[in-house]
Predict the structure of YdcF family protein.
Amino acid sequence: MKKYKRVISILVSIFLIWFVIHTLIITIDGLNDDLGKSDVVVVLGNKIEPNGTPSVRLQGRLNKAIELYEKGYFDYIIVSGGFGKEGYSEAIVMKEYLLEKGISSDCIMVDEEGNDTYSTAKNTKKIMDQRGFHTVTVISQFYHITRTRLAFHKAGLDDVYTVHSTSYEARDIYSLIREFPAYYKYLMI
């Protein structure tokens, strides 16, 4: 019995060390933007408030897209998100937000079927192929960047830049922990 407890203790210790190292790598990777000129940017969807406005987290992503668009890093924006439990299309709400901030409708493409990161990656690949685009920038929260890049590579996109939103919340701790199993799930896709 003592032998089994020791083995279990060693395995738990290895798992915890692996988790901590992985979480540190995700954090460092996510906070170090890989910014370059691209054909298009994809803003990944997130929660819509019950009144139909983007959450603070989503506004942070959209504001980062506006900032980089105005600096000339890309000419087109894909807003991607499905229908949330609040009853709104994330992508449509995102488009409306961008329009209110002065972004031309001609520059915005809508993906209402981006229900998860991998769906967004596959849908982005289709849009890029149709438009003849080759490079993409992805904007999300820092903890989501590593998995997002993995999803886009698995969808067949090799020239992927990543930028994190500068919006932070206490909930990010939960989200960072959740990224550990989510990353390995995407690794198996």
